[in-house]
Amino acid sequence: MLSLQNQRQPKTTPLVDDYEISDTVLGLGINGKVVQCTHRRTKQNYALKVLLDNEKARREVDLHWRVSGCRHIVNIIDVYENTYSGRKCLLVVMECMEGGELFQRIQDKADGAFTEREAAQIMHEICAAIDYLHSRDIAHRDLKPENLLYTTSQPNAILKLTDFGFAKETFSNDTLQTPCYTPYYVAPEVLGPEKYDKSCDIWSLGVVMYIIMCGFPPFYSNNGMAISPGMKKRIRTGQYDFPDPEWTNVSPAAKDLIKGMLNVDPSKRLRIQDVIRNKWIAQFNAVPQTPLCTGRMLKEGEETWPEVQEEMTRSLATMRVDYDQMQIKALDKSNNPLLTKRRKKIEEIFNATRN
Ligand code: ADP
């Protein structure tokens, strides 16, 4: 639980007093544009995301702000609460990620220049962000290629995760441990429900790692439909493979890790702790420097990349809905005393209002 003292408040002064907004569009998202802005005094460039002020936007900003100290999460510099043409907006000033998207950078590499060791290093960076979030009981739930950006175009650039539009505070066990109920032993099914949201991020990690290793996604829809019933079934039943020749030289350790992350059963899927302790991630510097075909395959598939992105977006949307429902069911079935008490209370109120 975060104390009120730690909670940061948006500034209410006009953003334009401190920053000059430019016409340069850095990216388009579902919620509008991300544009460049410049700090008037320091002349430093930043990225500005404008959100209509509502409960969802507040949650996005609050969760992103809380974790923006992580080396592998895009840093929030300032947040303003300003009114534009009568509409309240939240203006988020972030560090400007000048290095662009992860897969563009891999695609731009010379053929054969991208190796399994570099792939492991990239995964190590992404896992650091997810570990930071999960250890603070936050699930990102929208981990996909376009949300992984590089600070600069230099070789030493840092890869960072952004866009907390679907982030969620996971059902924390602490909330059940009120002073009057601190159990010595808590059954696994009671600790259960929160794991679904986090397992969504691990599935994404598996898909992203698969694409990093070969340049195409593990699941394809056959007929160009964004998410066909066939594809949904393939995801649900875990029907994917490691085809030759692209996967021939890839180490079995890398394939095993992907299998663990793409396990169809969210409760059996690896947790972030398992992933970061995995030798291929933890000792990425010892991973073989086998050349991968990722750059070439990304180039060949350049035209279909928007479809790959759309498919992942839709798969994640489906998964969030499915897991939310599973979570409600799991909660419903759990026999946690405090929840039972709460449920009884709700029933009582319900019955009282009916009579
Ligand atoms: P949405 O939540 O609307 O999808 P995002 O936060 O994902 O918005 O931003 C949309 C796009 O804007 C990103 O895919 C990226 O290309 C660009 N972008 C976002 N944040 C930054 C940043 N800090 N620096 C540079 N470009 C950014």
UniProtKB/TrEMBL annotation:
Alphabetic keyword roster: ATP-binding, Kinase, Nucleotide-binding, Phosphoprotein, Serine/threonine-protein kinase, Transferase
Residues engaged in binding ATP: K49
InterPro entries linked: Kinase-like_dom_sf, MAPKAPK_C, Prot_kinase_dom, Protein_kinase_ATP_BS, Ser/Thr_kinase_AS
Any single Pfam family the record assigns to this protein: Pkinase
Reaction(s) catalysed (UniProt annotation): L-threonyl-[protein] + ATP = O-phospho-L-threonyl-[protein] + ADP + H(+); L-seryl-[protein] + ATP = O-phospho-L-seryl-[protein] + ADP + H(+)
Similarity annotation: Belongs to the protein kinase superfamily. CAMK Ser/Thr protein kinase family.
Name assigned to this protein: non-specific serine/threonine protein kinase
Annotated source species: Drosophila suzukii (Spotted-wing drosophila fruit fly)
Organism lineage: Eukaryota, Metazoa, Ecdysozoa, Arthropoda, Hexapoda
Encoding gene (name): MAPk-Ak2
